[in-house]
Amino acid sequence: MIGRAVVFAIWLLITTFAASSALARRDILAQQQPSQELALGRWAGAIKTTGTELSFQIEFSLGPPPAYSSSRQEILKGTIDIPQRFVRGAKLTNIRFHPPTVHFEATDPISSPPAIFDGQLKNYQMSGTYRQGEARGTFALVRIRSVK
């Protein structure tokens, strides 16, 4: 009986040590690699330029790396909807997210220069500057949470 208790105690110590080591490794990796999960999901807000306010939504998701890439790490992908311009599901390009900074671009099918967004993510809100050709302004977004 005592032999079983000793074996159980040793097993319990080994299991606890292994679990705590795995958690410690996960925490170290999370600190080393910025989490793209902070940006994932659907966001809604507005672009404000002189005399104009456009409502828009974006959605960020993770997708496979390009075929030409040697990396196996998923990359951030996104789409934009601008209802007032009849834009739906337009692809975002040049997406960069290094918390707290975010950068993405969108090509509006109606106009030729890309819309460039540079901002900050803080407390589930994203805001910053917007420029497209000569137009300059600001944007602000909040994360949309789905209710189930």
CATH topology descriptor of the largest domain? Lipocalin
**Class per helix and strand makeup:** alpha+beta
The beta-strand count equals: 8
Low-pLDDT stretches are 17-34
Tally the helices.
Answer: 1
Overall outline: globular
β-sheet strand percentage? over 45%
Output mean pLDDT. 80
- In total, the number of domains comes to 2
From the coordinates shown, what is the CATH architecture of the largest domain?
Beta Barrel
For this structure, what is the CATH class of the largest domain? Answer: Mainly Beta
Distance between the termini: 51 Å
- H-E string: HEEEEEEEE
Helix content, binned percent:
10-25%
**Main beta sheet strand tally, sense and closure:** 8 strands, antiparallel, barrel
Arrangement of strands in the largest sheet: 1-2-3-4-5-6-7-8
From the alpha-carbon coordinates, what is the Rg to the nearest angstrom? 22 Å
Description of the molecule:
A hairpin with a 4-residue loop joins strand 3 (75-82) and strand 4. The chain is globular, with a radius of gyration of 22 Å. With 148 residues, the chain is α+β, with helices and mostly antiparallel strands. It has 2 domains: 1-33; 37-144, Beta Barrel (Lipocalin). The chain has an 8-stranded antiparallel beta barrel. The chain is built from 1 helix and 8 strands. The chain has one helix at residues 2-32; strands at residues 41-49, 52-63, 75-82, 87-98, 101-106, 115-122, 125-132, 135-144.
